[in-house]
Amino acid sequence: MISLLNYWFVFALMLLGLYVTISASNLVKKVVGLNIFQTSVFVFFISMGKVADGTAPILDSAYNAYSNPLPHVLILTAIVVSVATTALALALIVRIREAYGSVEESFIHDADNDTAP
Amino acid sequence: MSAQLPILVILWPLVAAPLCTLLHNRQVAWMFSAVATWASLLTAIGLYIQTSAGGELVYELGGWPPPWGISVNIDSLNALVLLLITGMASVLIFAFPASLTIQWLGNRARLYYTAYLLCLASLIGITITGDAFNVFVFLEISSLSTYALVAMGRDRRAQVAAFRYLIMGTVGATFILISVGLLYMVTGTLNMADLAERIPALHDNRVVRAAFGFFIIGAGVKVAMFPMHFWLPGAYSYAPSIASAFLAATATKVAVYIMLRFVFGVFGADLFFDVLALDQVFLLFATVGIVVGSLAALYKDDIKAVLAYSSVAQLAYMVLGIAVGSVSGLTAAVVHIFNHGLIKAALFIVLAGIFVRFQCTRLSELAGLGKYAPWTVGAFGVGAMSLIGIPGTAGFISKWYLLLSVLEHHWWFMALVIIGSSLLALAYMWRVIDALWLREPTQLVQERGREAPLNMLIPAWTLAAANFFFGIDTTVTLGAASRAVASLLGVSS
User: Fold this and answer.
1) Pick from A34, A48, A117: which is nearest to B170 by CB?
2) How many helices and strands in chain A, by DSSP H and E?
């Protein structure tokens, strides 16, 4: 079962990340959870492209087994997307903090309910 | 030139977006965005004409044939969706300069236009691409620009709404990424046409089924399908009104499109209906979504929130159309994608006009506005008629087909739900019309009551007129929809 070890880790990280995203009240912690969740998917893609005993896909007469580069390339794009998402999320948190004076979801919820007509 | 149309339609806004950041004058930035939007619309019209005879345009990016290269595929279905997105953007762009957010931003307005152009480009990208991974990338670009647009609302709650949308949207998009990864593991391809060929043989494969589940949940978040709809009311209520108009008319519609495309064009209808029986789940979600959305709309004071909850119900109609799955059900879903885009664009742009005058959209403060601004409230009334589904309007066409499709299956209960929810729509829209038109003017209205700015009123009435036009002449919408459904289901029209 050793070959599936990566996927078990991916699975654990995925659930952990989702749980933190959903349960954390602190907005920054939510973003951290989201990052863990996204990273688990990156690991998943990278594991998928790995071929046993394969090397980097550079033509060389010494090797004949190469890993599949496509998932690795895809995940580069996904990492960029993830960085952009994190940056935007943190920027929003800064503005939420300026407007409410807190990054706790429960606090923000109460503050909005108090001002609502 | 005409062979390049499939790529040009996205290139206009995509190239314009980064250039727009350099234009410090907000009028110049607006002109620039408007030209890019209109160029995109004209290209989309060209594509609609090219596909109107049926068939599919395949454009190979960089001359690399699929499955090695990425292809752009355009058939009747995405030609119609393209027409909707670019058409709505082309009308709404006229209202941008008058919107308060743009005025308040001053020379930073160019960044707002950039976000808008990026959102438009990526929505077009989702619609035209023939590559499953591209769908994820464009989905994320559109989502990121949407979060930025929503966060620019004046109320501080806009930022919280944008953040909540960001969390849900990213989880949803990542689910789609997982789905794409699982599909690649099993099939070794990302090309949607290739996937469609290889998946039917693998319907018993657990990985394919898992991929389907991940996809449905990911797309469901973007569609705001009932249990995943929590981001929508906040995002639409607190976003700048003009952004609400644009997003309500385009973003969720593209999400419904991608769900249609993947369910019928990639995974195959057999997997959805026979193997996993997800249509039962969709029926349940649609029913609850219609009822919950309509009931919530009945109790909101903010007109934008009324429209936002009504969107939840209206999107559930499209989910219902997918769940019915027959030719007529899917036709209803596709037509409703188009018609509901028209309706919500018209209604939200009127609200944008009202917001410019009063800085609020609360019903209790806007009572009696009709006496001072009959044209503004009139345009809203037309949109409301279409939303309810009064014969002669666009909204009637899609509801009628939806009703026929459930009656085909003898689903009397669903027919009752559709009729009942139309009555609910009548109730919540009447509540708004009644207050705006028949009640005594409030002090705020008496002091500041006048028509919306002309460059918002004209787009509003253009959209209102379009609601009548597409309610009477259905050759464009129904024609494209029936061709699209025929090719999706693989039957001759």
Assistant:
1) A34
2) 4, 0
